[in-house]
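re: that chain from earlier
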Amino acid sequence: MIIRSVFELRLDFNAGLNRVRAREHWRWLPIVLAILLLPGISRGQFSSGSAPSQPSVSTSTLPPGAPAPSSNIGVSAPAGYILTPNDQVTVEVFGEDDLRTNGRLNGEGNLSVPLLGSIRLAGLTLTQAASKLTELYSRDYLVSPKVNVMLIGYAKRRFSVLGQVNRPGSYEMPDGSPGGIDLLEAIAMAGGYTRIAAPERVNVRRHPATGNDQIFKVNAKRFTKGSGGSFLVEPGDTVTVGESIF
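^ sequence. v structure.
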């Protein structure tokens, strides 16, 4: 035992020397007892330079057939989100690391995929995109492939706020609101109304993908009075705040 090894006295013909040694051993008694009484301390824990081990994640805990974890962090896309040109995605094929790709859909909504070439994914949900790639890989290349498509970043979606606001200009849609934001939030991003603004005279011009431009006349003043209601500003919209006539 440690205590015995510390306090054991050896016989010596010189009694005076033994007394000196005994006093030296007793001097260490409080230190030894303090070490032995520390919680969780054992003789096996005194190895120098040891560091607590970190828990590891084993892929054996994954359900059978599940894709391995990816180092990319996807964004939280709304349920049923439809992919659009310039969205950034990652495509993974379980067990086929060389087929993994990460990129943005081009202006036509296509993504360059290993073996398959340029594949149009715009207009599809993430689930539909994965099903489409699964079908294409199954035709000529792989047997029962498991494909996962994950959204990494939204395409840059912008809107403009002009007229009587403190910081008129073009703004980017927040990542958490890819489909649009409330009119009052859009005006707040532009610095709010100026002193001579007329919130009841707001025009929103929209550019649909097909058809002519649409113009909405919005009385934003009633929104600020707590009477309910709102207006959604969509990507590509141009908001113009009118000037008070008084």
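The chain has three domains: 2-42, 72-153, 158-243.
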